[in-house]
Every structure is written in C-alpha cells, then in structure tokens.
Sequence to fold (642 residues):
Amino acid sequence: MTVAYYLAPVEQAQRGNRRPWESRVLGYAAVAGAWTTSVVPDLGVKQWCLTGVDAPDALHAQIKADGQIIELPFGPADLDGRVTALPVARRNAIATALQNRRIPTAWIGAGTTNRQLLKHLMRVFYATQRLGADFPEMALTFTWADLGVAQREKIQQFLAAGKVDVSDLRAALTVESLLHKLVAWPWEFAGIFQDDPTATDTFDRSSGAVGSDWTIINGAAGTDTGAPPAVTNAGWRIYSNALVMDASARSDTFFMRWAGATQPGTNNYYVEAGIDKATDNDNAIGVCWRIAASGTGDANCDGYAGYPYSDLHYLTRIADSGETSLASGTATDANAHTLRGEGNGNAQRLLLDSSQILTATDSTYASGAVGVAIGAWGSADGAAWTTWTFSDLSAAAASLVYSPRARFQHMIVR
Amino acid sequence: MPIEYYLAPVELITRGLRQSTGSRVELYRDQMADPSLAQLGSIIPAAGVKAWCATALDAPQEVHDAASADGLIVRVPTNVLSRTWGELSAAVQNAVLNAMAARRIPSDWITASTTIRQIIGYILRCLDLTVRMTAAGATFPEADLTLTFGSLPANVRNQIRNWANANSIPNGDITTATALRVVVRRLVETFAFGELKLLDETFSGALVPAQQSALDRLISQTRGALGL
Fold:
C-alpha cells in the first residue's frame, strides 16, 4: 500500500440509493478497499478537492491514468522535501493546475516544502468552507474593489476574527493578496500536518563559528574559544554545544538572524529558545521576531525581542538596536527556561515555559525574519542558548481532517 | 491588585547600566521592593510623533498612588471600563478633556453614553495610527487640532491623502480649510485597526462616535479656518 495525493474533481456519485458528493478518486478507491481522505471546498465555490489515498500501486496506476485527476508527485515521506526539488515538468504541471484553479503559486520559493504547499491548498479550501458564497472565487488579478460591499464586509469580519491584519484591505488589493490573508488565518491542523516545517538548531557542533544557517546582524563573531565569560572577544559563537554571546560591556541590543533555507511561511509565527541563564537572572538572552530580513549592522537591528533583565521579563520593540519597552513583568530567575516570542497580526506575546507572561499591541513590524537576541549589558556570566526553533502559528494546533462546520465534506471510505 | 490606566511621557529609562525607552510609569513600578509583583503594558507611538504613551499597570495601590502624584502622568479617572462619560463629575470630565486636548486627541465625539473603554480605545487608536502611518512612510498630522489641514506642508498633506486612499478612507471632502480635528477623527474612526489590547483587556470594540452632521462639519471647518 502506498499513500499518494491527488487534485480531483468533486462529483456526485451513485451508491445504491445514496448520491454523495465526493472526490472522483473515490470512484476508483471505494471499490478497491483503499483508505481515502479528502479536503473538499465549499461545493458552491470550487468543484475540485484534495484527496489522499492509501492504496495498492495498481490502483494508483488507474487513478493516475484518469485525465481529470492530477497526481501530486510526493507522498507523506516527502512532505519536508522542497517543491523546487520536484522534476521541473511535474512542478510546472502542478503550478499550471493550481493557477487554473485560482490558487496562488507566486509565493512558492526555494525553501517551500511540499508540506507547505499542501497546507496552503487546505487553508484555501478551509476558507471556502468558512466563507461560502462570500469567498473571493474570481481571477487572482481582480481587486478588493471588484467584490460586493456585503462580501467585503464578511471577509473583513472573518479576517479580523482570526487576528489577520485588515488595515491594508483597500481598493487596489488583488484577490491574490487577499487569498494570502485568508491563508494566514490561524487554521488548526492535526495529524501529519500538525507541524509546519520548522527550523530547529540545537547548537550541537564544534565550538567556534555559529554556522552558515545564521547571519550576525550586529555584535560581531566571537573569535575566542575559551569558556565564557572570561574571554577577550566574546561575540556570537558556539561553545560547548550551545550558543553564547557576551554583551556585558555593550549598550546596544544585538540580533542574529536565522538564514537557514526554511523560513516562516506566514507573517504570524513563534520563535522559541531554550535559555540557560547560568548564575544570573538578568542576562538578557532571548529571542527576536519580525526582524530585518536583510542587512547587517545596528541600523538593521529592528524587530521585536523578548528577554529577561533587571529581575523582570521584557517585551520590546527594537529600532536601530535601541530598545522600547512595550510590556514588562514576571520575575526572572537563574534557571533554564523555554522562552517563546510570538507575533500574530499586531498582537505580540512572550511566553515562559509555555505560559503567556507578556502581551503587547504594536503595529510597527508586520513581517520579518526570526532569530536570537541579547539585550545591552547582557550575559556577563556565560548564559547560553541551548536550543532554538520557530514555527508558523497556523501550524501550532493540518491534516486532511478538519470539520469547522456541517458544510465541510470530509470522507473516509474503506 | 488593581489595574489602572495612564497617559504618561515616553522617556529614556535607566536601570543600572541599561537604558531603554518606555513609559514614565515604569519608574514607579521599578521602585517597588519586588517589581515582579506588577505587570505593565504600554502602547507606544512611533518615535518622534507623540512624546507620550498609554500604559496599563497592575500593581499595589501604593504604586498607583505614587504614579498618580507625578504631575507629568495622567491617570484615567476610573478603571471601571464600563462607566459612562455621563457618570463622571463635571470636574473630572473637564480634567479628561483638558488632558486629551493637551495631547491632541479629539474629544468632540464623546457623548454622555460613551464608556471609559471607548475613550481609552480611541486614545489607543490614535497612538497605533502614528505607528501605522510612520511604518507606511506617511506623516501623522501631529499639530494643534484647531489648525487647518492647509497648515500642513503640501508634501505632508499628500502623504496623508495617499495613505487614506490606500486604506479606503474617504477624504474627498477634506480641504485645506478643514480642521485637523476633523482629519484626525476621520483617520481614527475609519481605519480598520483590528484588535487593540492592553494587559489582556480589549479596547477594539465599536467607538460609536457622535454622528457628525454636514452642519457640524461646516462649523468645524469654519472654526478651523478661524483658528478656533
């Protein structure tokens, strides 16, 4: 048995006295003892769906031979593979199929994974289920102004309820951009789609340079190899399978940007680090999000950061490495913790060991990259980042299983 | 511990060797024997636009008393957010109106049924607007509200119109004679801000501003033109 994914028409089947709407794939699978599951858009909006099938290869061969069904050339084991790694002809065929079905593809980049592609599709389908006739099912080049007033109001309310930024809903906004907003709604996923491709770094490597997945925005690379903090040049570096940075004699905030291939798929995501605060509770080591996606130096040290110092935790807005305090509170200690920064629309949050400790409303940075941060005068004692990761918020809580309302068509057929 | 709301200067705050920009209310929180007992959140405007912010502080009463005694800090007269404007005494109303006028926040939309939550929400919108316009490269019309739109440099007027157009905010009726109060109100009351929270309290509900009739608008414009 092999699992494969297909784009297929939704058709009305005839099963005895029953006439269910279902994926065309089921016409093959239902009689062959295969497992299938589909995400079906609102039927009045789109007439095709995404179907996963666990079936013998012979059945897959029959399905693939159907000219109305498009096979996605990857299975569950390939979900973390890159779309760009797919054969060019297959990739182009998928892109054409999606564009013909009014699904944006311009967002797919070098780092986009097959999982992200599938989840993007599912999110669009979910949006059709929620919005029904108000879903903007029209050419992607149409604009916000082409939608009816009532339709615009429904969409705006829906986006606002999901804390998606609606401030740029304006006449010239294209339907393609609008779909990106609908995709950014905090959809919940489960099963094998629960986790978006997240980037993770455990810093388990030889002491020295931070590695090619990181770009030092400011603070310079450390050149010493001794144990922190008793070193001369104590910039960003790996020491004893952890990331260290001594900013104890400097008055700026310092950022290091994640430059790995996998980047946030949306503007709403969390970034989390394990921080070992050594002996001090005021070492200002933490995380940063929505930071400048390019450039280095203090002038590009912009974004949100969260870290502990002066006995409290701080959620800050950083501009040109200078710090503005947005929220503060909750005692610090000298123990190891997990610190998570989160940006969702204009809502910024800081969580300590999975519990929310600080929130702030700020609209300065709507998007950006992720990284680690250290505040001025931080880490005099050798505090260290022991792990680091990020993930899109929409992945926090996708599978082909989701049932937001009765109109949702989810079929499992043996 | 009670939560109180403040309008406070944005200052450079020093803690040991560290300096950060923040609400002046932080100074009083920092004086606590155990500052971790307090929670503080602020909405801070774009740097260089307004020199004050809105702060919510959850702290012991003595900290609120100390902060309230600071002549540079204005405490919102009640933390009962459902209380209406009409329930406040005339003296308290005047104090609020003066504080808003001094900070260039329109207050002519307030009616007897307006709640404290709506007033704070309006102030938060003004602050957030400075951030959003600055982020988009537009200049927030930070000037005496009795001045006219024409008192702003032409490039600033164009920035404001372009930003308004980009955000579907009607502005065709705004002329150089229109009072800035009308302009700021239009921006604040028409822009879709999304959720605005301070210390987990939501202030993004409907503003229900007083309806401005064509006559009101004319009067406002005339006042603006006369510098009133």
About this structure: Residues 209-213 of chain B have pLDDT under 50 and may be disordered. Strands of chain B lie at 3-15, 18-23, 39-43, 52-58, 74-75, 197-198, 201-202.
